[in-house]
Amino acid sequence: MELFTENVITIIKNIPSGYVMSYGQIARIAGNPRSARQVVRILHSMSKKHDLPWHRVINAKGEIGIQDEELFHTQKSRLENEGVQFKGKNRVDIEAYRYSPECEDII
Fold first, then answer.
1. Which domain covers residue 74, as residue numbers?
2. How many domains does the chain have?
3. What is the H or E stretch that residue 92 is in?
4. Which InterPro entries does this UniProt record tie to the protein (predicted)?
């Protein structure tokens, strides 16, 4: 497994309940700020295998980016169960709920 992938998995596993991170934020901390789409791919292909809290990852606007209606509602419900409040249908106050660790705290 590549170091970037290992870092992404470690970062996602360490997002605490009730907080979120953006794809780009994870990519930056993992060592490649231009790889937000790779974070999406890692989430898609490795969430079950590594038991990742995938629902805690949202886009930079604070929105749930999943288009699939069932997965959208699953993600929103899981976040709400952790105390995350939404503005409108799909937007989280990213500044209020963003987990902002230092790189050296995680990887």
1. 3-106
2. 1
3. strand 91-92
4. ATL_DNA_repair, MethylDNA_cys_MeTrfase_DNA-bd, MethylDNA_cys_MeTrfase_DNAb, WH-like_DNA-bd_sf
In DSSP terms, 52 is beta-bridged to: none
- The pLDDT tens digits of the residues spanning 12-69 come to 999 999 999 999 999 999 999 999 999 999 999 999 999 999 999 999 999 998 889 9
pLDDT value at residue 17: 98
Q: Give the integer Cα–Cα distance in Å for 68 and 11.
A: 25
Residue 6 and residue 1: Cα distance in Å, rounded? 7
Helical ranges in 1-107 per DSSP H: 3-13, 23-30, 36-50, 69-81, 94-97, 103-106
CATH number for the domain harbouring residue 81: 1.10.10.10
